[in-house]
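Help needed: design a sequence for this.
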């Protein structure tokens, strides 16, 4: 299995520099998160266990980690976390 970079992806959005980082979790999994200056950009983290990643790659050529990196970027660009927080706040008022 190839080594994963600490900063899997970098991009700019709304005047901020984001990094998508991949780390290895404690329970045989990869964890993908978006960061701004080494601080979490939102409350989301994306996980795939080693076995599932390997099986998907071997069986159908699908790179689950790359997909989750793209999903993390998409969620930042679409402000999904902010929409979630707004919905929670509106729901709390009613």
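Sure. Designed sequence:
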């Amino acid at each position: 299995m190839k080594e994963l970079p600490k900063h899997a992806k970098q991009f700019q959005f709304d005047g901020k520099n984001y990094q998508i980082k991949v780390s290895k979790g404690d329970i045989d999994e990869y964890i993908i998160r978006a960061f701004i200056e080494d601080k979490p950009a939102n409350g989301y983290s994306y996980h795939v266990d080693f076995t599932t990643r390997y099986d998907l790659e071997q069986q159908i050529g699908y790179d689950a980690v790359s997909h989750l990196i793209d999903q993390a970027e998409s969620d930042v660009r679409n402000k999904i976390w902010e929409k979630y927080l707004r919905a929670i706040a509106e729901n709390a008022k009613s």
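The chain has a mean pLDDT of 91.
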